UniProtKB/TrEMBL annotation:
InterPro entries noted in UniProt: G_CP_dom (IPR030378), P-loop_NTPase (IPR027417), Ribosome_biogen_GTPase_RsgA (IPR004881), RsgA_GTPase_dom (IPR010914)
GO biological process entries: ribosomal small subunit biogenesis
Function description: One of several proteins that assist in the late maturation steps of the functional core of the 30S ribosomal subunit. Helps release RbfA from mature subunits. May play a role in the assembly of ribosomal proteins into the subunit. Circularly permuted GTPase that catalyzes slow GTP hydrolysis, GTPase activity is stimulated by the 30S ribosomal subunit.
Domain EngC GTPase: 121-269
Complex formation: Monomer. Associates with 30S ribosomal subunit, binds 16S rRNA.
One GO term describing the cellular component: cytoplasm
Protein name according to UniProt: Small ribosomal subunit biogenesis GTPase RsgA
PROSITE patterns tied to this protein: ENGC_GTPASE, G_CP
Upper classification of the organism: Bacteria, Bacillati, Actinomycetota, Actinomycetes, Micrococcales
Top-rank EC class of the record's enzyme: hydrolase
Compositional bias (Basic residues): 14-25
Amino acid sequence: MPRGGYEDHEVRQRPNRRGSRPRTKIRPEHREAVPALVTGVDRGRYAVLVHPGEPHEQDVVAMKARELGRQRIVPGDLVAVVGDVTGAPGSLARIVRITPRRTLLRRTADDTDPVERVIVANADQLVIVTALADPEPRTRMIDRCVVAAYDAGMTAVLCLTKADLADPAPMADLYRPLGVDVVVTSRAPDREVAGLDEVRARLDGRTSVLVGHSGVGKSTLVNALVPDARRATGAVNAVTGRGRHTSSSAVALRLPGHRGWVIDTPGVRSFGLAHVHVDSLLHAFADLDSVVRESCPRGCTHTQDAPDCGLDAWVGTDQEDTSASPERRRRAARVDSMRRLLTARSATDQS
Ligand SMILES: Nc1nc2c(ncn2[C@@H]2O[C@H](COP(=O)(O)OP(=O)(O)OP(=O)(O)O)[C@@H](O)[C@H]2O)c(=O)[nH]1
């Protein structure tokens, strides 16, 4: 191998039985590659923003280089691209590298199917959009989203919509002990969405993934937050040649003023959690994690019925005691909530 590695054009490929392997295992270095952010994926074509955040950033359509094999590329991925990065109509660049991911949101098809699907890379937070009524909130589903966020290394935000129809307080009380931030929106008929400033403040400067069931008001929210959302999905449209964005895969939309990204996930309705390990969930609860490390017996499951679980001693013996101190009540709520997530993780019911 020449000093400094091979250039792209120096690697000769020859057909073999499977017709797809390069002749050498040495990969080209692609020193001319430029950085890009993946904003959408549709049928093997990738919408990428080359030189993101720079004055000369450019929307480009790309394909995946053969050498990346079966590695999945998802919205939020930071990649290196080569080839035609002008973004001219009909041009096609090539993604040759994926930068190691900071966070990785995944799901399993269902709890018994261990095949993992990567949904979004490098996002900071998962915004779980839930209506307070019409449709009724599904706490099991929300719990599962929180587990998926924590497993991914992301924080979780609960966005409660339709506060004009029901009181947000009970839901907020249920999720705050989990470390979940809560924001509330509402809308009178034919009026703008109220509460948007609070949502914007939470999204500011971050990459946020929005999930939510049909009818919860997610589209209303996305359109209010990203007024040119239609235009922003244009890069993917250019890929498919279709007039409208009909893909069910995630797409990254930039907030006005370059104040962060919102990644909409039209196709994601539930999270199979077969891949989630108890430890990765506990990492999101630093206080409980240290208790567990110090005082739980080996192999402790930390569930309600686990014998000698250190979390019970941490809370105090008599949890029914109504005169319990505020601190003890706080600890009890936190342990109960974490145990709820442990249950959500292993429950097969995804409703
Ligand atoms: N009362 C009330 N209705 C709302 C609010 N936000 C959205 N809606 C209504 O709820 C309905 C569903 O809103 P969408 O934004 O389409 O919901 P979605 O989650 O995107 O649902 P899909 O498009 O099916 O994925 C629409 O009729 C909205 O007008 C709100 O804050 N209060």
